[in-house]
Amino acid sequence: MASPRVCALYGLGRSGNRTCLTDALVELGTHCGAKRGAPSRFACGVGAVWLIVTGWAFQSGAIVTGYVLGGMLTFVGLLVSTTDICIPSLIYRTMFGFPSKSGNDKA
User: Fold this and answer.
1) 72-84 burial, b if ≥16 CB within 10 A, otherwise e?
2) What distance in Å separates the CA atoms of residue 71 and residue 80, rounded to the nearest whole number?
3) Residues above pLDDT 90, as percent of the chain
4) Burial class (CB in 10 A: 0-12, 13-18, 19+), 32
5) Cα distances (angstroms) measured from residue 2 to each of 12, 16, 32, 41
6) pLDDT in tens, 19-45
7) Would you say the pTM of this structure is higher than 0.70?
8) Whole-number pLDDT of residue 100
9) Which single residue of 8, 74, 82, 92 could bond 39 by disulfide (Cβ 3.0 to 4.6 Å)?
10) What CA–CA distance (Å, rounded) separates 50 from 69?
11) Read out DSSP for 44-84?
C-alpha cells in the first residue's frame, strides 16, 4: 500500500497527468511510481552507481575526479530534463536493442 511518506521518499515525480503524491492520496493501495521499461530502469541504475562513485571519489580525496564525475552527472541530468535525450537509455538500446512492446504500450 503506497502512502504519501513512501512517495515522498520515492520522489514526487510525475506519473501521467498527476504527481506521485496525488496518486497516493487519491488512490491508496496503488503503486506510486510510473511503470518504467528496461531502458529507464537501466538509466536509473547507471545514475545511482555514478552518484555513489562520485561520492566515493570525494570521500577518498580524489577531488578532481569527484568534480569531473559530478559535472558530467549534472550535464547528463540537465540534458535529459531539458531535451528528453537520455544517454544511458541510448546505451542500453545500443547494447540490447529496443525492448518489445507489451499489450499496454501504445504504438
Assistant:
1) ebeebeeebeeee
2) 14
3) 30
4) buried
5) 13, 17, 6, 20
6) 554 555 555 555 545 577 888 888 888
7) no
8) 73
9) 92
10) 8
11) HHHHHHHHHHHHHHHHTT-HHHHHHHHHHHHHHHHHHHHH-
Q: Report the pLDDT averaged over residues 57-71.
A: 95
Q: Give the alpha-carbon dihedral of 50, 79, 106, 101, to 10 degrees.
A: -30
Q: Amino acid identity, residue 25? A: L
DSSP, collapsed to helix, strand or coil, labels residue 100 as: coil
Length of the chain, please? Answer: 107
Whole-number percent of the chain with pLDDT over 70: 62
Residue whose cell numbers read 580525496: 61
